[in-house]
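SEVERITY: medium
COMPONENT: batch folding queue
REPORTER: lab tech (J.R.)

DESCRIPTION
The queue accepted two submissions in a row. Attaching both inputs and their returned structure tokens so the on-call engineer can compare them side by side.

ATTACHMENT 1
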Amino acid sequence: MKIRQKTIICLIIGITFIACVPDTGNEITDISISMSDPEIQKIIDLQDKHEMKSLYSYFHNENPAYRYQAVISFASIKNKEANDSLIRMLQDPVTQVRAAAAYALGQIGDNKITDRLISSFRGKDTLNVNNIFNANILEAVGKTGNISDLKAIATVKTYRSTDTLLLLGQARAIFRMALRNIVNDEGTSRMVDLLYQDAVPKAVKIIAAQYFARAKDINLSLSKVRLTDLFTKERNPDIRMALATAFGKSKDSDFLPSLKAAMQTETDYRVKCNIVRALASFPYAEIREVLLNNLKNENLHIASTAAGVLMSNGFIEDVPEYMKYDTVTIPWQVRAKMNGAVLAHTALYFTKSKISFSERILKNLRENDNPYAKASYVDALSRDPFNYLILNRLYSEEKNQIVKIAAIEGIGNILKNPLFFKAFGYGFGKIKAEMLNTLVTAITSGDIGQTSAASGILKEPSLQWKEWLKDLTFMREVLTKLKLPKDTETYNELKSCIAFLEGSEYKQEKPVFNHPIDWTLLQTVGDSSIAAIKTTQGLIRVKLFKRNAPGTVSNFVQLINDKFYNGKIFHRVVPNFVIQTGCPRGDGYGSLDYTIRSELPQIYYDGEGYIGMASAGNHTEGTQWFITHSATPHLDGNYTIFGKVIEGMDVVHKIQLGDKINEIIFVK
């Protein structure tokens, strides 16, 4: 282990400029990719069909553009069978091709090739060791390496502030390790250093900050002073919001004064949302005033986030205070959660009070025509285990699928409530059986949303359904009736439920190639083409990334031309994360009768406003897409990016659950 670590350090630290790159002679080295080039189109079609052997043939093509396009295809395909061929491409004479191979190997993520990646790092280069190839090697090791590799990478401190690519590679390597739950004090210390040095590029600092937001079980005790100082002085909101999340995760009370002070002075709603979420980790008495004061915040994202924290982290003595919010004029997004807070924190056996208040919630539900508001009130009702009968009844009576699915999810909330057994004592078995009947009805309903939601509950390990469900014939019958590829998400959810209940291995169903790229249509998309998205909140203008995601852009433009998106709902809104739309059903379970492939070249969610494809796993995309509120690098390499907002981010930030797309106009 020590010998390997020393080898890694020597390879990665070395920044000297004495060796020569391979002689390219008269070979073409310029890479120019054109989507109108028939050969490039052919390579991308091969990628789309996952025809790996045909792609390999381009690895030896004299044109580096074709080699590059063929190599980067494997970043999307992600098949370990390509490892040996890609490793050979790490020696390609053209830097961009080598870099594409390194990135693709990282995307595949096979830990068996880590040593080959490390040995390919070029610590000696007459041109510049600070290049995209070396950066990609570092990032790839972050996706494949182990704890000793992390230590070796994290302890390198010889990179200069001008070595932007190397610093990015190092930061991404440490971050990627953290996403794989590989962390150590050296990695944490290095990320603190990167954050604290003024000369380090902003892009590197954002990755470092995201490390603290995403990494599990890291020790911040030695860095508290510097991180607190950074949180106070840093002006970049992407960094402040990530640090706020980190402070909450740490549950260290020393960070609390800084969070509360920032709540008073912060001007960016996204940072405030993260602060509010972070407050949930601290004693209620310390955070109560901040949360209550923000329930009427003019920014609905902040207000609803505060209400959500109170619903999950409130206190019994404040229930009368929570009740007051049912008698004042506030948006349903806040009212429903405060209704839920009342039921969640009223003593279990104060049955008369809870029955009375549940009637008030039902009144709110019945007086509202908005299905998303109704669903939120259903969720509020599910905070009291004794409301299982109400949820069963709502499931039977309600016609709207969004509300019916909310009732199913509410049954799941009740079953997972820590007070469930205490509430029903020795009679819990009878109650659980009644709810199981509803879940079985949902699975056999013929509705993909209901089937998927109920399957998720029945495969929850803590609920121990294996002894309750011995005959799974009814599930297998439903499975045969689902239509692929349209119902892929539900098919996989139900199939994984069956596998869990019978104790067998689950393998996700991946759609086969079924929707070719329309190259004629794609030629109508130019470098300056814009999608103008007219919403109920205003206009959003999006630049489409034809070069990065030709299949996705072609599909998107076709759906625009078909007016498919007109009237579609933003069915998912997560404050300071994403807004999502494009579902034919409006509940996130809908799709058309085809799927498209994931397209995952080297492009990153490194800021706000990226347009990404929603999916139920790689290569299951269709019509649903999202826009990011801020940097979301944990999505990198798994969710297709096919555009970016160039105008109207203020509109994106205003979008709420239930807002609509009026129409999308494609401007050539």
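ATTACHMENT 2
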Amino acid sequence: MNSKERVITALRRTGTPDRVPVQFDLCRPLLQGFSAKYGIPVKMSPSYYEDLTFRTSANALRTAMGSDCVVVGGGLPAGYSHPTTDDGCIINEFGMQMRQGLYYMDVVKCPFDAISSQAEVQAFKFPDPYAPGRFETAVRDIETYKNDYFVIGDVELTMFEMAWHMVGMEKFMVDMASHEAYIEPLLDQTMKFTIGIAKQLAALGVDGLWFGDDFGAQNGMMISPKMWRNIFKPRFAEVFQEVRSVNPNVLVMYHCDGAISPILNDLIEIGLDVFNPVQPNVPGHEPQELKTKFGDRLSFWGAIDQQYVLPRGTAEEIEKDVAEKISILGAGGGYMCSPAHILQADTPLESIETFLGAVRKYGNY
């Protein structure tokens, strides 16, 4: 099998692939480190939200390292560049002022940090998902890789995270619990943007669409399942339906950090195919429990511990984690092995290579 066939067979659960497929994302310092090691130049592909830049860049490098997937997404409009402040921050298309932190680009000033009315949402000029030039890099990479690799269209920060990044998390969560009138119109605007990006990627021929909003924490959900069902479930149902109106065969993939097992049945009900990142060591995410309860209706992507094992574990601990996750989640197919988040600069290059070697060692069927 080539990489594309391997991923499709695994994630559609249509049979047993020749081996468990693998995918991974790297932060900028790790991309630079592996670029130097492999002699493969890395050119960043700026996106409308900075975290997406690392996921949609360096496909040549990551496939050379063994990834079965390439990741593409919406970029910046033609001729557009982020304004910068005197102290070195960028201001993205959504009006967020961002500064490079230790690991991520952090939002240091939110455009709606004092919002109090629905009228402010209506007056705000949201970016145009259909702006010319957004998909120049995506078109190039899809054409290059579409026959041999599984192509993922990344549309994370689907609505909840984009909205609270515009307001500030504490204020957004309090206002959502208080039923402030601006909350749902703001979510509708972020959802509208995501649908526009996702439908264009579906039309361009991606194999899967990767949505994402983090509703989970280490010990449970950040909002109640009831609130999620009332506010977010119908909106995600609409998003999934819209992209399938363009391509009925596109795989719907969903990223949600933390312990979110209480809503997995709901996500399956509205059309989810693949759950990512299957964060380990949180309640409800025990591999055997997930496979037993959901494995006939849902595929899994992720599950390798990037909080401790990959950054600080020994080679033996890394191999043990990979072997265990493959043996359980990969039984009969239905699994793509991956770290449970983008790998950060605290992870040694050697540990990433150990992870990739372990997938090859233990992943054959």
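NOTES FROM REPORTER
The mean pLDDT is 97.
No errors were logged for either attachment.
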